[in-house]
Design goal:
The chain is an alpha/beta fold. Helices cover 23% and strands 26% of the residues. It has helices at residues 35-40, 137-140, 168-171, 195-203, 220-225, 249-273, 304-316, 337-346, 364-377, 395-405, and strands at residues 5-8, 15-18, 21-24, 27-30, 50-56, 62-67, 72-78, 81-87, 97-102, 106-110, 114-120, 125-131, 144-145, 186-190, 208-210, 231-236, 276-282, 322-327, 330-331, 352-354, 358-359, 362-363, 382-385, 393-394, 414-416. A six-stranded antiparallel beta sheet has the order 1-2-10-7-12-5, with no helix packed on it. The longest helix has 25 residues, at 249-273. The chain is elongated. The relative contact order is 0.10. The structure holds NADP nicotinamide-adenine-dinucleotide phosphate (NAP). NADP nicotinamide-adenine-dinucleotide phosphate (NAP) binds next to helix 4, helix 6 and strand 17.
Length: 447
């Protein structure tokens, strides 16, 4: 009896497993899927949700080659097969073939997009496979197929195909040159209408950019209706960002609904579909008591907005594949502090702006580029601080700079403190209910 082992093949992500089979005078027993041991040996933790079987009456039954939109673990209950796999994923390994004669003492892990076929070499062959998504007609529509007789894959079937039992459909699949490769799972940007959402949409033109009108995260039906099975990466750019309003009765509810409950929904979706979730958080999860806040510091939020952001960070961090990016003072296309100040300057308003709240304004385009970088490099999952560089500045200093750069006198801006600030002045949108002196995120780790 061999020991359990997991061996790679020429097809990236396709693994052969040797399964120990314990036999005696009654027959045999094997652990066909043993998550803990197999994952420890390098098998992906693929989360099967459905078990299918096909029974093959006679030697010569030949099925395939089908590339499906889920991962599979293929094994036999009885009999023997020649298993054959051809990579039909878009990319440099497209067309790579691998075959293996196998009985119940082997299993093969087949990643999404690799075509799978087999020929029964004995009668009464029971073929079984675990898959990590439920079959549906919509899923079937996304299958990709290859002809069993394809000359490029050149699979040596022990029983010639002319003598084999093949379904009519399987006999008519295309040759490799006519196969449309299976695309990788897609990227979705949620909250695509906001400052960060727009910057991400520009940088990721192939991503599905979903504004609130298309996907409202506070509406469970809207979330459930989206076809998540084909999504590999979810970037959450949505948020309730009205920091002052979040302190009101209605704002508190709305902030919790968008920033926590909606994120819990996305976490559930990402977990179910093994997708990477990118989530954006804020310096407001800290109280500013320390001069700088490293990525692993426990949160200490002072206001409702900060509490909701910290709660979502904890939810997202429960996922194996996640990135939480903490940033500050996002400036992009849309409503933001700089635009508000420019508008006040234009209208001749002389605002009082808080001098005791300090941070680093961050361009939405740079934040978006950081997200793309983390994804493209496959950086370790976790929490990252990401702001623009340069000295920290108070909102008062930033406001004065905006007045200057838009051709207005900087001394039109006067300093105030958070304690003195009264939200009924014309500057209500430029302060916040955060009672803190200074929040500085330590810089982004270099990956
Ligand atoms: N802005 C800052 O200074 C700042 C600072 C630190 C961290 N952050 C964080 O950075 C991220 C991006 O911020 P941002 O400045 O780009 O925000 P933003 O401009 O206010 O955009 C937020 C987007 O979320 C959408 N949204 C709200 N509720 C939604 C829902 N129920 N379903 C789907 N979408 C919904 C909004 O849609 P509508 O346009 O339809 O309302 C809006 O397009 C957020 O996580 C924020 O907390 C921002």
């Amino acid at each position: 009896m061999t020991a359990l082992s997991v061996t790679p093949t020429p097809i990236p992500g396709l693994f052969v497993l040797d399964l120990p089979v314990h036999g005696d005078n009654r027959g045999w027993f094997k652990e066909n899927w043993q998550r803990e041991k197999m994952v420890a040996l390098g098998l992906p933790d693929f989360g099967p949700v459905q078990n299918n079987m096909s029974y093959n009456l006679d030697a010569g039954v030949t099925r395939g080659l089908h590339a499906e939109p889920w991962d599979k673990l293929v094994s036999l209950g009885t009999g023997r097969i020649l298993g054959a796999w051809v990579d039909l994923r878009a990319g440099s390994s497209f067309g790579t073939a691998f075959s293996l004669e196998m009985g119940p003492d082997k299993a093969v892990f087949v990643p999404r997009g690799v075509a799978n076929g087999y020929q029964a070499l004995e009668g009464n062959t029971l073929y079984s496979y675990l898959v990590n998504d439920h079959w549906s007609p919509a899923a079937r529509a996304s299958y990709t197929y290859l002809n069993l007789a394809d000359e490029t894959a050149a699979i040596t079937w022990p029983i010639p195909l002319a003598e084999a039992t093949i379904s009519d459909a399987d006999a008519h699949h295309p040759r490799l040159a006519d196969v449309v490769p299976m695309p990788p799972r897609s990227t979705v940007i949620v909250g695509a209408g906001g400052q960060l959402g727009r910057a991400l949409t520009t940088l990721l033109p192939d991503a599905a950019a979903l504004t609130r009108a298309r996907l409202d995260l506070t509406d469970p039906a809207s979330v459930d209706a989206y076809p998540w099975a084909s999504v590999g990466t979810i970037i959450n750019a949505s948020a309730y960002t009205a920091v002052d309003d979040a302190e009101t009765g209605e704002g508190r509810r709305r902030a919790w609904a968008v920033n926590v409950q909606a994120v819990a929904r996305l976490v559930e979706v990402a977990r179910r579909h093994r997708a990477t979730l990118v989530h954006v958080s804020s310096d407001y999860v800290f109280d500013g008591a320390a001069p700088e806040h490293p990525e692993d510091e426990p949160p200490s939020p002072l206001g409702v907005y900060g509490v909701t952001k910290a709660a979502a960070d904890a939810l997202v961090a429960t996922l194996p594949q996640h990135y939480v990016l903490r940033t500050s003072g996002v400036i992009g296309e849309g409503r933001n502090f700089v635009r508000t100040m420019a508008g006040l300057a234009e209208r001749g308003i002389r605002p009082a702006v808080v001098v005791d709240q300090v941070g680093r304004p961050t361009f939405a385009t740079d934040l978006a580029a950081g997200i793309v970088h983390l994804l493209a490099t496959g950086a370790p999952a976790g929490t990252y601080n990401l702001t623009n560089e340069g000295p920290a500045a108070s909102w008062f200093e930033v406001a004065r700079r905006v007045f200057e750069l838009t051709g207005h006198p900087a001394d039109a801006v006067s300093p105030t403190t958070t304690a003195e600030f009264t939200p009924c002045t014309s500057t209500s949108s430029v302060s916040s209910s955060l009672r803190r002196a200074m929040v500085l995120l330590l810089p982004f780790r270099d990956h």
